[in-house]
Every structure is written in C-alpha cells, then in structure tokens.
Amino acid sequence: MTADELLTQIQAAFDRRGRETYGEGVNQTDHALQAGWLAEQAGAPPSLVVAALLHDVGHLIHDLPEDIAEQGIDTEHESLGSAWLSRFFGPDVTEPVRLHVEAKRYLCVAEPGYFERLSEASILSLKLQGGPHDAEEAKAFAAEPYAQAAVKLRHWDEEAKVVGMKTPALAHFAPLIRASLRAG
C-alpha cells in the first residue's frame, strides 16, 4: 500500500466514524486532531505525534455501536488500533497506541490526583479496562520499553477534550504520517 492509499484509508475512517462522541464533549475527529496537535506543540518526535493522532483509530475501524461502553463492553480499541497500525508503522507508533490504556491504569496509582481529573467517560472505560493498576501491574508497565511514550500520549489524550479548540486539519499531519511509515 502506498502512503497516499494509507492517507486515504485514514481519512475514510475519520469520515465514517469521526463524528461519534464516545461520551466526551468532542467527537473522535476533534479528539484525534487535538491529541496530535498537543503532541506536536510539545515537540514530540514525528512518530509520537502520529501515535497521539491515531491512538484511538481502533474506535474508527470496528463496527460496534457508539455507546458500547455504556453497554458494559470494552472494545479493546488499543489492541485493535495497534494491530491495524502495525501493518504500516513500526513500534515507535504502534507501542504507545497499544499501551495508552495501560498508561491510564498506571497513572491512576503513579500520579497523585490523576484519577480525580478523569472525565466520567474515562472513568467508565477505566472500570471496563481493569481499573487502576495494582503494584505488580504498575511495576510491569513501567518496565515496558515504550511506557514513557505511552504516558506522554495519555496526558495528551486527557487534554484533548476541549470543545471548540482550534487545530490544523488532518492533512496537516500527512508529512508526519509519511515520515513515520515503516520502511519497506
């Protein structure tokens, strides 16, 4: 698949499900653009900007209802998204995506006050995703090679829920997506 074909697929995924809100004040597209923009503004490397932009792509490619969390079902979007992205990108993109839910679970015990800042929708999904880490889980997560990248992504994820925030369009990120593609 060419880079142009991948960009077309990504745009199609956002066109298909990007208007869904998943219980937050912003829709999937706004959330993704905000996360990517926050990562770029923080000076993150291109691969981590792309990971932030596409961290919830798993929500865009499954066929489950928009209110699936309210039905008590975890979509495991982080695994689905990471697997989909691994066809095109290396671990610098896919591992922070795979680990961003675990990063939330980790931060609930590792960062004082983090849990209290979570939105209602994020607390609901946290329950479905296993709740805060215990000491053993936190230690295992912290030892992951991409744990710190996932923690950064998670913070941008939490901040990327601002109604009306101005961000560049998806096309702005095309050069970073191209630069982050796996060679070969």
TrEMBL record:
Coiled coil: none annotated. Residues 32-105 form the HD domain. Gene3D superfamilies: Hypothetical protein af1432 (1.10.3210.10). Pfam families: HD (PF01966). It comes from the Bacteria. This is Phosphodiesterase.
